[in-house]
């Protein structure tokens, strides 16, 4: 059996179409990956801000994950807006049950979304501990500098990475998009090796969805069987092109573009084969 690789995003809906699961699906499609979703919340959102959030019942979130995993067999999973502590607890239990994340066979890219780029909250304030608790499952956790400040109390990329690894993540990717200076530098580390991913900072206010796009591109490449460092390198090249092709729509911050990937995931091996290879089984 052959077909495209499959990835799953566990995320919120952005009615403005720039971030959240909409950005994830655009990104998966750009890589030739079949995208699936477990929706955590519906946001009332446009380019100016977020004016409402409707949370999905935790059991329905967990059931979406189960339905997708049992039938479509994703070979990578990405999380974005998780909304509340009860939703996070339900997701953690579903991940453990279905072999998602560390200790399982399906790699997990965990983007710890706390607020929108407008500063509107996307996570209930009492859910920070639950979110930190999920890090022990993460193949990679991908905070921006505002999120490292909230989660581990620092905006220093090296210090933040160290603290994130201490919470159990296998790799930390601390993004520098919210920094200053002519370069946009992200730090990827597993505590032994440091990789600085460096790109020109593009002058634009239209970066809505850049973080989701980086994490989704990483998941897309992982779904095709890349190692984590290779997946992140390809994702960084892609998000730089995405920012370069961003555009204005609406009165506020426009979205990044999603051009076809230069490094698409090969239509391949069914998910089972990728999982078997990852688990070290003989194909
Ligand atoms: N102006 C820019 N020029 C080039 N790269 C950028 C720019 N802004 C962000 N990036 C890159 O985009 C990715 C996302 O970074 P950022 O720190 O903005 O994450 P984020 O805040 O989670 O994104 P989002 O705006 O979706 O919430 C990183 O690889 C970052 O280096
Ligand atoms: C549903 C949802 N998920 C994630 C983001 C973060 O994206 P950004 O920081 O670009 O606003 C968002 N605004 N909405």
TrEMBL record:
Pathway, according to UniProt? Cofactor biosynthesis; thiamine diphosphate biosynthesis; 4-amino-2-methyl-5-diphosphomethylpyrimidine from 5-amino-1-(5-phospho-D-ribosyl)imidazole: step 3/3
UniProt entry tagged with the keyword Glycosyltransferase: no
A single GO molecular-function term is: kinase activity
Task: Tell me where in this chain the Pyridoxamine kinase/Phosphomethylpyrimidine kinase domain is found.
Answer: 14-256
Q: Which transformation does this protein catalyse, written as a reaction?
A: 4-amino-2-methyl-5-(phosphooxymethyl)pyrimidine + ATP = 4-amino-2-methyl-5-(diphosphooxymethyl)pyrimidine + ADP; 4-amino-5-hydroxymethyl-2-methylpyrimidine + ATP = 4-amino-2-methyl-5-(phosphooxymethyl)pyrimidine + ADP + H(+)
Whether Kinase counts among this entry's keywords is: yes
UniProt keywords, alphabetically: Kinase, Thiamine biosynthesis, Transferase
- At the top level, the lineage of the source is Bacteria
The UniProt function text for this chain reads: Catalyzes the phosphorylation of hydroxymethylpyrimidine phosphate (HMP-P) to HMP-PP, and of HMP to HMP-P.
Name of the protein in question:
Bifunctional hydroxymethylpyrimidine kinase/phosphomethylpyrimidine kinase
Q: What is the lineage of its organism?
A: Bacteria, Bacillati, Actinomycetota, Actinomycetes, Cryptosporangiales
């Amino acid at each position: 059996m052959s077909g495209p690789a499959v990835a799953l995003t566990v995320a919120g809906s952005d009615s403005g179409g720039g971030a959240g699961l909409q950005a994830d699906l655009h990104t998966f499609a750009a890589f030739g990956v079949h995208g699936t979703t477990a929706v955590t919340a519906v946001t009332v959102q446009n380019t100016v801000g977020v004016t409402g959030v409707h949370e999905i019942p935790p059991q329905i979130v967990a059931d979406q994950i189960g339905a997708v995993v049992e039938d479509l067999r994703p070979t990578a999973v990405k999380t974005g807006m998780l909304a509340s502590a009860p939703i996070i607890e339900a997701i953690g239990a579903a991940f453990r049950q279905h072999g998602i994340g560390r200790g399982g066979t399906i790699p997990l890219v965990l983007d710890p979304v706390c607020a929108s780029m407008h500063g509107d909250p996307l996570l209930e304030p009492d859910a920070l501990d639950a979110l930190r608790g999920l890090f022990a499952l993460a193949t990679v956790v991908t905070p921006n500098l505002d999120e490292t400040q909230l989660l581990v109390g620092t905006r220093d990329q090296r210090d933040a990475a160290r603290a994130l690894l201490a919470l159990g993540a296998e790799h930390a990717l601390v993004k520098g998009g919210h920094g200053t200076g002519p370069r946009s530098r992200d730090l990827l580390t597993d505590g032994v090796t440091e990789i600085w991913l460096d790109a020109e900072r593009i002058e634009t206010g239209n970066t809505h969805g850049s973080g989701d796009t980086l994490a989704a591109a990483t998941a897309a490449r992982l779904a095709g069987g890349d190692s984590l460092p290779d997946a992140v390198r390809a994702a960084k090249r892609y998000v730089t092109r995405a920012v370069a092709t961003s555009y204005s729509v609406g009165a506020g911050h426009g979205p990044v573009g999603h051009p076809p990937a230069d490094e698409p995931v090969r239509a391949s091996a069914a998910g089972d084969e990728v999982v078997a290879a990852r688990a070290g089984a003989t194909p």
